[in-house]
Specification:
The chain is α/β, with parallel strands linked by helices. The protein is built from 20 helices and 13 strands. Strands 1, 2, 3, 4, 5, 6, 7, 8 and 9 form a nine-stranded mixed sheet that branches. A four-stranded antiparallel sheet has the order 10-11-12-13, with helices on one face.
């Protein structure tokens, strides 16, 4: 609460006190877990030399202090971007630790490491002082004392379980406020991490609310009427070249043509008048490894797990690249960094892609300090490849990266670097120019007349700070713009609500491809007021339509936001989609 003092100021003093009161049960639970081994060791002190027992307890505690303080700093750092306390969501990234470290700046890494050493050193010194003081109380005892110590050790099960109630304590027991930050502050981060670690996917659908057929019927009834376009085709050809540009972390909050901040993306704002702008388009998740399966497989993210991290499951997903290859498209994926991050490489190869351009294709002098090639160099590579009479039709996917933390760019920081939000704005202003330059290049190419360029964000972002709940639609609303000579309609806006999972289905519909396997998708060119978007975050979901907004948290089992006269419909639809999507995830082998 000190680290995020700006958020703490938004809650009153009584609520602050309650975070400690409600959180105490989880604190005691984790303290009891840690105490089990020392308690058992004390029992052995009855017949083992006390020096050996004290030494074991000492090193056990020192190791714990070091590990807990490391996780403390990771938890504090991730909360800004993820909006949740530390859990197993971080584990898939440990396969590529060097890339995980790339998300923090050098100064953050230096000060964080220094803080880790200092905090650990201080607590180790405090512990050493106390163990010297009290270790003299440990002495060889009598065998009759063993039952007493065993009873004391077993009594730790009471705080471990959070009391004498039938159901053990969980996160929902400490959720007490309509302010989500207060609830998160009450959660013991290290208890939360190990709780999610020991409750991995076990084949149980924890998001089941209806019987299976009822859930399927609720979603089907709403979706069936939205599968066909109700406007004429927007293309003047049924086999256009397609360039899909996935713009890292671009939220609608900073896109002027969507009513956001006017000066961050001037090129995108200008281009929005030249094509088809989707003004109510949403990301389905909040990370790249959630966004890519949503865009290319029409697949909803999971509340905690990531399907991209499980190759055995991704093999059975419908894949837009493979469908395009089946239609005769030459398909290439462009990325300026390491494709192994988040297991992206395996997913893309399962998608049928065999042509890749990645960080290995760029000179190290063209790399940012950590993450990969600068966006201007990256987009010039894409332009260079497309200037050499490419084989048509082609389907190229380009994922940018300079607007990813730590926002390392090689030009002037237009909005400065004094705050996180201004650094974020500056990075997007830079990427906006590189994409604007690429589009101007494309307009001059002979293939442009038969091409559509789709510019879409891979996910939304918490920056810049918005009013309302952290997981409000403001975080997930993103731009999607269609440009190119293959469009027969330009300078128009489509205000129907849709999301990333609808993209592949709709594109395949336009090019006469097979889209029947995209079971969660709808047609973005159906402008019915029944259209909806559904996004999933850590242990929760949001469902949006013209009828209103309903955001639900599975931990507190309460709505976070409930706006509109017919949100009961959105409530049932949201629960059904989350249940169906997770059931599908469990059943994929």
């Amino acid at each position: 609460m000190i680290y995020y003092f700006d958020k703490t100021q938004e809650i009153n003093f009584l609520t602050i006190l309650k975070t400690f009161l409600y959180g105490l049960r989880l604190d005691l639970s984790f303290a009891a877990y840690l105490s089990i081994i020392p308690f058992l060791l004390i029992i052995f002190s009855i017949f083992i030399n006390k020096k050996r027992i004290v030494s074991i307890i000492k090193w056990y505690t020192i190791v714990l202090i070091i590990i807990i303080n490391l996780l403390l700093l990771i938890d504090a750092g991730l909360y800004q971007a993820w909006g949740t306390r530390l859990d197993t969501s971080i584990l898939p990234y440990l396969n590529t630790p060097e890339l995980m470290l790339s998300t923090v700046s050098n100064s953050q890494l230096i000060f964080g490491t220094l803080a880790w050493f200092i905090i650990s050193y201080v607590f180790i010194q405090i512990f050493n002082k106390n163990i010297k003081k009290y270790s003299s109380l440990i002495d060889l005892g009598k065998w009759l004392e063993i039952p007493v110590f065993l009873i004391l050790t077993l009594s730790l099960l009471i705080p471990v379980r959070g009391g004498l109630q039938i159901i053990p304590i969980n996160q929902s027991n400490v959720y007490f406020s309509d302010k989500m930050f207060a609830n998160h502050a009450a959660v013991n981060f290290i208890w939360n991490f190990f709780n999610t670690l020991t409750h991995k996917t076990d084949g149980i659908n924890y998001y089941k609310y209806y019987d299976e057929q009822t859930a399927l019927n609720i979603e089907k009834e709403r979706k069936t009427q939205l599968l066909k376009a109700n406007i004429d085709s927007v293309l003047n050809t049924d086999k256009p070249n397609v360039i899909l540009i996935l713009w890292e972390s671009l939220p609608g909050k900073i896109v002027g043509s969507l009513g956001g901040e006017p000066d961050v993306t001037p090129n995108l704002n200008r281009l929005s008048k030249e094509g088809i702008l989707f003004t109510n388009f949403y990301a389905n998740g909040d990370r790249t490894d959630k966004g890519i399966p949503a865009v290319l497989s029409g697949y909803y993210p999971q509340p905690v797990e990531r399907i991209m991290a499980t190759p055995n499951k991704t093999r059975s997903l419908p894949m837009l690249p493979q469908k395009m290859i089946d239609l005769g498209y030459k398909t290439t994926f462009y990325y300026g960094g390491d494709l192994n991050f988040g297991n992206m490489n395996t997913y893309l190869r399962n998608a049928g892609i065999t042509n890749f351009v990645d960080g290995n294709d760029f000179d190290t002098k063209d790399w940012s300090s950590k993450w990969g090639a600068y966006d201007d160099v990256f987009m010039k590579k894409l332009a260079s490849d497309l200037s050499a009479s490419p084989q048509e039709p082609f389907f190229n996917i380009a994922l940018t990266l300079s607007s990813h933390e730590p926002y390392d760019i090689k030009c002037e920081y237009k909005f400065g670097k004094d705050t996180h939000d201004n650094t974020f704005r500056s990075a997007h202003h830079y990427t906006d120019k590189t994409i604007g330059d690429f589009v101007e290049f494309a307009k001059k190419q002979p293939w442009y007349k038969n091409t559509i360029i789709v510019i879409m964000s891979d996910h939304g972002h918490s920056s810049p700070k918005h009013t309302g709940p952290y997981f409000s639609p403001k975080k997930f609303r993103i731009p999607m713009l269609w440009l190119g000579g293959a469009l027969n309609k330009k300078g128009i806006e489509i205000s129907a609500i849709s999301s990333q999972v609808d993209f592949s289905y709709s594109l395949l519909d336009l090019v006469n491809g097979d889209n029947k396997d995209f079971i969660f998708s709808k047609n973005i060119f159906n402008t019915s007021n029944k259209q909806y978007a559904h996004y999933i975050f850590n242990k929760g979901y949001g469902t949006i339509s013209k009828e209103g907004v309903f955001i639900y948290d599975y931990i507190s089992q309460k709505p976070i936001l409930d706006i509109g006269d017919k949100t009961s419909t959105l409530d049932s639809l949201g629960k059904a989609i989350t249940q169906n999507a997770y059931e599908d995830f469990l059943e994929r082998k």
